[in-house]
Amino acid sequence: MSKTPIKKRSIVFFLVPNFTLLPFAGAVETLRIANRMLGYSAYEWRICSVDGTKVSSSSGICIDVDTALADERRKLSGENRPNMAIVCSGVYVEEFHNKSVNAWLREAYGRNVAIGSLCTGSHILAQAGLLNGKRCAIHWENLPGFAEAFPQAEVYADLYEVDGNLYTCAGGTASLDMMLNLIGQDFGEALVNRVCEQHLTDRVRAASDRQRLPLRARLGVQNNKVLQIIELMEASLSEPISLLDIADKVDLSRRQIERLFQQEMGRSPARYYLEIRLDRARHLLVQSSMPVVEVAVACGFVSASHFSKCYREFYNRSPQQERAERKLAGASSKLKIAA
């Protein structure tokens, strides 16, 4: 009688400078625990960087690697080709441009290697052209800039997304959920439950679970009408809706809304609306190369001059200064890594 073949999966984790340590460690540990529960190495992994040297995470902790990108490109045509390649990145991902990485990802995907990403890694997959017309996830903080930079991608504020042979994860502890999904595909729910017991996870979150806390918990607001109004505002940042339209949608008068906001938020609804639009603008300035005038339009401002005036009043610096400081911080980080 022939024995049932043992399932195995080989994974390459590609580390980008300033990658986030938490999702990387969470993914690897989840696979390690699965191996321990199975009693054999069903999941094997190796760690890769562009040049084969160690990579510094955003926390400053460096990780040694096993291979260089050139090694992995050669392995694609041999018996050591992986089943999956996962890009791990973090802050300053928009400054990472490497044509060889893009080519490797495209070739691997063309050879039926599953491609994944952790935290902001979707940015690199999109650069490689792999996410056009595909569902993907990215950390909520990077979502506005990503959506503007890659309009062909269908990006969602979910914990993770699986679209065919593409696995994208928002980062943080969501990497555990994506790996548990992978383990479930390979070995079923029983092993998933055993892994959860080992790393003290009381449930497996669904891919579509929200990344951020609910508004009620995040803002400390209990009034349902105020929460409903804020949801309307957050859904209409590029084309702000008038307070009269909001009042009509929530069955309140304009005066009632203004009174509620003063009681619950300590400021007028117009001021709060402006603040969340400016917050989105700040994310776009530091996470994209969009011209300031395009950032202004994307955040619902009628002109760049009006946007700059509001931005300076709120943040005590101009949009141009914000972007310059961001570039300086990125350059400083690169110098630390080189050192």
TrEMBL record:
Domain of life of the source: Bacteria
UniProtKB keywords: DNA-binding, Transcription, Transcription regulation
All copies of domain HTH araC/xylS-type, residue ranges: 227-325
GO MF entries: DNA-binding transcription factor activity; sequence-specific DNA binding
Keyword DNA-binding on entry: yes
Keyword DNA-binding: yes
Listed name of the protein: GlxA family transcriptional regulator
Organism: Allorhizobium terrae
Source lineage: Bacteria, Pseudomonadati, Pseudomonadota, Alphaproteobacteria, Hyphomicrobiales
